[in-house]
Specification:
Length: 868
C-alpha cells in the first residue's frame, strides 16, 4: 500500500494524476511508461485508437477515439470495469435501439463490440452544446420551436420503429455548430407493441434510476437465452426510470410507458424552452402524483409572455395532459401542428412584408399628414369576435355539460374558433387589397366578396352565441360543439369570384329579404347539427312562405336543409325528393356549391338508407365532376369521395371503396392536418372496406387512428367515439379476437346508455354486433334479446324491408336454430330471404343469400325431424 502511494506521489510530481473514471489497466500502463521512460503504447478499443476521456456517467464513460479504417474521430461509450451485469445489458440494449435508427436528428451508431469485460458502442462524435445549455441564453419562441421540432423528429423516428426513449430531456439532445439537433442516450429505450386501448395498462418493470414513495420490491427478472434485450425487463417491479421533472405521470407511477410518455416529456422540455420555466414547479412530484391519481391538471406555471402565440401554448399544453388519451395521437401529429403554427406565423409576417412593398409601390402608405392605408380597418372587429368574455362563457358551459369530455372538447372548440375568426379577418383584408391596393379586382367584386364574408361572420356570431348561451346541463351543445364549429362555411368560398358572380345573376329578390332568409337558414343548420331536428324543421317550414318570391338557388338552399333534416328524422323518401329537387335547381342555376351540398346527403340516403346503390353511384358520376372543377374545396371533394366509398361498401365493391376513401383521407390530411376531426369519418369507413377484404391489420390501424382522432379532439368519453369502438370491435371479431371485440362493444353500449338521446342507428349497430358475438359463444339469454332489440332499431331507422333488417333477422334465425327452436328459426330466416330477394343483385348480396339458404335448409330439416 505504501509503495502504491509513493508511485502515485511520484507521478503527481511528473504532472500525471489519475483521471476520473480512468480504468485500472490503463492507469497502470501510464505508471509503467512514466517510470521506465518507454513510450506509452496507444490503447485500443476494438479497432479504434483511444484519444482520451470525453465524459462519464452512471452507466459508463464516453471516450474520444480514432477510426483508422475510415479516418474519422468517433465517440465510444463503454461500461466501466466491474459494473453490474445489468449495465452491460443496458448498453447492448441502447446499441440495439440505435442500430435500428438512421435519422438526421438521432445520433448515428457505427459499431458495437466487447473488449475483455467491457462493452462498447462506437458512434457519431458531435461537437456542440446540449439544449439545456443552449436555451440558457435568451431565445425567441421561433428559435425554440425550430430547435425542438428537430428533436421531435428524432423522437418520432424512434417511435416509428417501435422504440420509446423513456428519458427525453434537454440534456439528452445536442445541437452542433451548424444548428443541427440530435437526440442522444437511448439507453432507456425498449421496444413496444400494440396495446388494446380499452384494456388496463400492464405494469412496467425497468431499470431503477429514481424511486418515488415506497421502495421497490421483488427480484431481478431473468433474461433467458433468447430474444432481443430491448424486450428484457431488467429490474425490480414497479421501479421507474427517467428524470422526474420531465417524467409523465404514468411513468412516475410505474405504469406502462409508451410513445405518449415521450410526448409528455418533449412538451415539458419545449414549455421550459419557451417560457424559461418548467410547466408545473421546481418540484413536480406532487403535481404529477395528483395527475396520476386522476385529478385535474393544476394550473401551469405561466409567465404570461405575450411573445408566445396562444395557439402554440395550447398545442404544448395538450401534450402535458395527465391523461395520455387526451394528448396528441402521436408525436407526428404534434409535430404537424407545431410546424403548421410556425409556418402560419411565418407566412403571416411574410405576407405582411409583401403587402408593405405593394402598398409602397401603389402609394397607399400613410402620408405625412396622417392619411391611413385603405385596408387597415377592412376587417373591423372580426378578429375580436372571439373575445375573452365570450371564451369564458363557452368554456364554462362546455366544462359543466361535458361529463368527462368537456375539457378536450373546449380545447378543440377554442382553437377552431380562434383560427376561423382570424382567417375571416384576413379574408376581409385580402378582398380589400385585391381591389384597392393591387387593382386585380373591380369594386363590384369587392362588394360580392364582402357580402359573402358578412354571411360567414353572421354564422360565426350565431355559433358563438349558441355555445355561449347554452344551459349548464345542455348535453346536446357539449356533444356537438366541435361539429357545430366544423360546419361553418369555408373562407375559400368567398374567394371564388366565378361562383359569387353566378349566384348574383340569379339573386333578383330583395337583398334584405335574402339576408333574413339566409340568417334563419343558419339557425336551422345549427339546430340540425345539435340534433334538434324538430326545431330546425319548424324554421325551414316558416321560410317556405317566402319561396314563391325567391330565386332558384336560394330555394335550393332551403330544400337542402329541409331534406337533410328529414333524413335525420328517418323520413328517407321525403328527404330524397327534396334533395333531388335541390340538386336539380342548383345545377340549373349553376350554383355548384349548393349542388354538392345537396348531392352528398342524397347519395347517402339513396345508396345506404334506401339500399339503392346503383342509383347512388349514378348520382356520383354527376357529383365528382363538380368537385374536380377549379374553386372546389378540399372538404367538398373529400365528402363526395367518402359517401361514394360508403355506398361501394354496401354494394360489395370493397377494393373500389378503399381507393375512394384513401383519396378522401389524403385530401383532408393535406388540407387540414393528420389529426383533424374531419378525417375520422373516412377513416372509419376505410376500416370497414379493409376489414371486408381481410386486410385486418390495416383495418385495425385505420380504425385505431379514427379512434385516436376522436378521443384527441373530443375526449375519451364523448359519444362520438362509439362508432370507432364498434368498428374496432368488428376488426377484432373478424380476427377471432373475440375477447377484445367484446370489450369494445360493451364499452360502446355503455357510452350509448349514458347518453340522453342515443342515435338509434348506432344502437342498432352495436346491439346486432354484440348479439351475434354472444350467440357465437352460446350466451343465449343475453344474445337473443340483444338481437331482437337490434331488429327493432333497424326497423325504426330504415323500415321493415331494408337489408340491414334482413341481416339482423338472419342472425336471430341462426341463434334460434342453435337453441332448437326451429319453427321460430324458419320464420325469421324465410323473412330475411324475402327481404334479400327484393334487393337489386350484387356479388355481396348473392354470397349472403347463399349462406342464408343453407341456414334455412338446416333449420327446415331439423324442424321436420322434430315433427316426426
Amino acid at each position: 500500500m505504501a509503495e502504491n502511494i509513493q508511485i502515485e506521489d511520484a507521478l503527481a510530481r511528473l504532472g500525471h494524476a489519475r483521471a476520473e473514471g480512468e480504468p485500472d489497466d490503463e492507469y497502470k500502463r501510464d505508471i509503467k511508461a512514466r517510470i521506465f521512460g518507454s513510450p506509452r503504447p496507444p490503447r485500443r478499443i476494438g479497432r479504434f485508437i483511444d484519444l482520451g476521456l470525453l465524459g462519464h456517467g452512471a452507466m459508463g464513460t464516453v471516450r474520444r477515439a480514432y477510426d483508422e479504417r475510415l479516418a474519422r474521430e468517433v465517440a465510444i461509450k463503454l461500461v466501466r470495469h466491474g459494473s453490474a451485469p445489468r449495465h452491460h445489458d443496458r448498453l447492448l440494449r441502447e446499441a440495439q435501439a440505435l442500430a435500428q435508427l438512421s435519422h438526421p436528428n438521432v445520433v448515428q451508431i457505427y459499431e458495437v463490440g466487447e473488449l475483455a469485460s467491457e462493452v462498447f458502442i462506437a458512434m457519431e462524435l458531435i461537437e456542440g452544446v446540449t439544449l439545456h445549455e443552449w436555451q440558457h441564453e435568451p431565445r425567441s419562441w421561433r428559435e425554440c420551436l425550430e430547435v425542438y421540432l428537430q428533436a421531435g423528429r428524432g423522437l418520432a423516428a424512434a417511435h416509428a420503429t417501435g422504440l420509446v426513449h423513456r428519458d427525453f430531456k434537454p440534456t439528452n439532445c445536442i445541437r452542433d455548430e451548424k444548428g443541427r439537433v440530435r437526440v442522444l442516450d437511448f439507453g432507456l429505450a425498449r421496444a413496444v407493441g400494440f396495446v388494446d386501448p380499452s384494456g388496463p395498462p400492464p405494469r412496467d418493470s425497468e431499470d431503477l434510476v429514481t424511486t418515488v414513495g415506497a421502495s421497490a420490491g421483488g427480484s431481478t427478472a431473468s433474461h433467458g437465452s433468447s430474444g432481443s434485450l430491448l424486450q428484457a425487463q431488467l429490474t425490480e417491479r414497479n421501479a421507474i426510470v427517467g428524470t422526474i421533472a420531465y417524467m409523465a405521470p404514468e411513468q412516475l407511477g410505474g405504469r406502462r410507458v409508451d410513445a405518449k410518455s415521450d410526448q409528455f416529456s418533449f412538451c415539458v422540455a419545449l414549455y421550459e424552452a419557451l417560457y424559461g420555466l418548467l410547466p408545473f414547479s421546481r418540484d413536480p412530484r406532487p403535481v404529477l402524483m395528483a395527475m396520476m391519481g386522476g385529478h385535474d391538471q393544476p394550473p401551469l406555471v405561466d409567465p404570461s409572455s405575450p411573445k408566445v402565440p396562444r395557439a402554440l401554448r395550447r398545442a404544448v399544453v395538450r401534450g402535458l395532459s395527465g391523461n395520455p388519451d387526451a394528448r396528441w395521437p402521436s408525436m407526428s401529429a404534434l409535430l404537424e401542428e407545431l410546424e403548421r403554427l410556425g409556418k402560419r406565423r411565418s407566412m403571416t409576417w411574410a405576407s405582411a412584408g409583401v403587402a408593405s412593398v405593394l402598398l409602397m409601390a401603389g402609394g397607399w402608405l400613410a402620408s405625412s399628414s396622417g392619411e391611413r392605408a385603405p385596408c387597415r380597418d377592412a376587417a373591423g372587429d372580426t378578429a375580436e369576435l372571439w373575445s375573452d368574455e365570450r371564451r369564458a362563457r363557452v368554456e364554462h358551459a362546455l366544462l359543466l355539460a361535458g361529463r368527462g369530455y368537456g375539457e378536450q372538447t373546449w380545447a378543440t372548440v377554442d382553437e377552431a374558433i380562434e383560427h376561423y375568426a382570424r382567417g375571416l379577418a384576413d379574408q376581409y383584408v385580402e378582398a380589400c387589397e385585391a381591389t384597392k391596393v393591387r387593382s386585380e379586382e373591380a369594386l363590384p367584386d369587392l362588394e360580392l366578396r364582402n357580402a359573402c364574408l358578412d354571411r360567414q361572420r353572421g354564422e360565426l356570431e350565431g355559433t358563438i352565441a349558441t355555445l355561449a348561451d347554452a344551459d349548464d346541463a345542455d348535453d346536446a351543445v357539449a356533444q356537438r360543439a366541435v361539429d357545430l364549429v366544423a360546419a361553418l362555411r369555408l373562407h375559400e368560398e368567398c374567394a371564388d369570384l366565378d361562383a359569387l358572380r353566378r349566384a348574383a345573376e340569379h339573386e333578383d329578390s330583395d337583398a334584405g329579404m335574402v339576408a333574413q332568409v339566409r340568417e334563419r337558414l343558419g339557425a336551422a343548420r345549427r339546430s340540425r347539427v345539435l340534433g334538434r331536428y324538430e326545431d330546425g324543421l319548424r324554421i325551414v317550414e316558416e321560410l317556405s312562405q317566402f319561396v314563391p318570391d325567391l330565386d332558384g338557388s336560394l330555394l335550393a338552399e332551403i330544400q337542402v336543409e329541409e331534406g337533410t333534416l328529414r333524413a335525420d328524422l328517418y323520413e328517407h323518401q321525403r328527404a330524397a325528393e327534396l334533395l333531388t329537387h335541390a340538386f336539380q335547381d342548383a345545377l340549373r342555376n349553376r350554383a355548384n356549391e349548393i349542388a354538392v351540398d345537396a348531392v352528398v346527403p342524397l347519395i347517402y340516403v339513396v345508396g345506404i338508407e334506401q339500399a339503392r346503390p346503383e342509383e347512388a353511384l349514378t348520382l356520383g358520376l354527376m357529383a365528382e365532376p363538380l368537385v374536380e372543377q377549379e374553386g372546389a374545396t378540399a372538404r367538398a371533394r373529400a365528402e363526395v369521395l367518402t359517401v361514394l366509398g360508403q355506398v361501394l361498401i354496401t354494394r360489395g365493391d370493397h377494393d373500389a371503396a378503399q381507393r375512394k376513401l384513401e383519396d378522401a383521407v389524403d385530401i383532408l390530411g393535406d388540407a387540414y392536418g393528420r389529426d383533424h376531426i374531419l378525417l375520422a369519418r373516412p377513416l372509419d369507413s376505410l376500416a370497414t372496406a379493409l376489414r371486408e377484404q381481410g386486410a385486418l391489420q390495416a383495418a385495425g390501424g385505420a380504425s385505431q387512428r379514427a379512434l385516436d382522432i376522436r378521443i384527441g379532439r373530443l375526449g375519451k368519453n364523448h359519444p362520438d367515439v362509439i362508432h370507432q369502438h364498434i368498428n374496432l370491435g368488428a376488426v377484432f371479431q373478424s380476427s377471432e379476437d373475440d375477447e377484445r371485440a367484446l370489450l369494445h362493444y360493451r364499452y360502446a353500449l355503455d357510452l350509448l346508455r349514458s347518453t340522453d338521446a342515443p342515435a338509434r342507428d348506432v344502437l342498432a349497430h352495436v346491439r346486432t354486433n354484440l348479439g351475434a358475438l354472444l350467440a357465437k359463444h352460446q350466451q343465449w339469454e343475453e344474445a337473443e334479446p340483444m338481437l331482437r332489440l337490434g331488429i327493432e332499431d333497424w326497423v325504426a331507422v330504415n323500415g321493415p324491408r331494408h337489408p340491414r333488417v334482413a341481416k339482423a333477422r338472419l342472425g336471430l334465425g341462426r341463434l334460434l336454430h342453435r337453441r332448437g327452436r326451429d319453427d321460430e328459426a324458419v320464420g325469421e330466416l324465410e323473412l330475411a330471404l324475402e327481404i334479400f330477394e327484393e334487393q337489386r343483385p350484387t356479388p355481396e348480396l348473392a354470397r349472403i343469400m347463399d349462406s342464408a339458404r343453407e341456414s334455412l335448409d338446416e333449420a327446415r330439416r331439423a324442424e321436420g325431424s322434430t315433427d316426426q
